[in-house]
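Data deposition worksheet. Section B asks for the primary sequence of the deposited chain exactly as it was used as input, without tags or linkers unless they were present during the calculation. Section C holds the resulting structure in token form. Section D is free text for depositor observations; keep each observation to a single sentence. Incomplete worksheets are returned to the depositor.
Section A, Depositor: J.P.
Section B:
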Amino acid sequence: MRRSRQSSVDGELEAALRRLQTLDAEALRHEWQRLYGNKAPRLGINLLRGAVAHRLREQAHGGLSPALRRRLREALETGGKTAGSPSLKPGTRLIREWNAVTHEVLVINDGFVWRGQRYASLTAIAREITGTHWSGPRFFGLVRGKGGSRG
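Section C:
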């Protein structure tokens, strides 16, 4: 019985998602109003369509689990530091060689200092060094790929 109910929900969802592809911006804004209960923000049609599709999927499948909601809330409250995040004490020096240049970062109470300039995150420093987006903790060797802790 559960399997047929899930098949029905999935079929209805797929039909609704297909229908979204045919809607113009005004109709998508009406869908937004119906699904979110407030006026749609000024978004491009693709972003609007994606947000409405997300809400439909969320309603069909229940959204985020309570555990994930709790972890996200904790991350917001702690500035992104969660149980798996590296904890660095002020005064710690991080050293990384990149393209034959050694870079030294000093951990301070409210961020990091690199080349005499304060940064809020290691990711911002890694971006400055490499010119591309990197996870700062990964770039400086504090975590391994796939989020595994180093230590």
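Section D:
The longest strand covers residues 101-108.
The chain has two domains: 2-63, 93-147.
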